[in-house]
Design a protein that fits this description.
With about 120 residues, the chain is of the alpha/beta class. About 45% of the residues lie in helices and about 20% in strands.
Amino acid sequence: MSNILVVDDNEQNIYLVKFILEKRGHKIDVAPNGKLATQMVELNKYDLVLMDIQMPVMDGLEATGIIKSMESSLVVVALTAKAMDGDEEKALAAGCDGYISKPIDIKTFADSVEAHI
């Protein structure tokens, strides 16, 4: 069992991701924006952060930079509908260790998460 922080402002995405990962035995915490995610990383031990890129308050790229400065070994994977040319490179340049685009294919998503843990 791994502790995973899901950072997303869309309730439907959160529900789907939680459903998939909890069914596989993982413990899930949720943050609706990057600012809260950085605070949660300070207070808790996570094995993986799934980070949406476009969110209110603080976007995922800024939050990833802050998280990586606090906990450089923590794996952060971008999980985003922002899938235009160059977006994956921007996420990786911001410190993300991987990139998964939405909409989620359940098997591909689950396999990718398992590979990053």
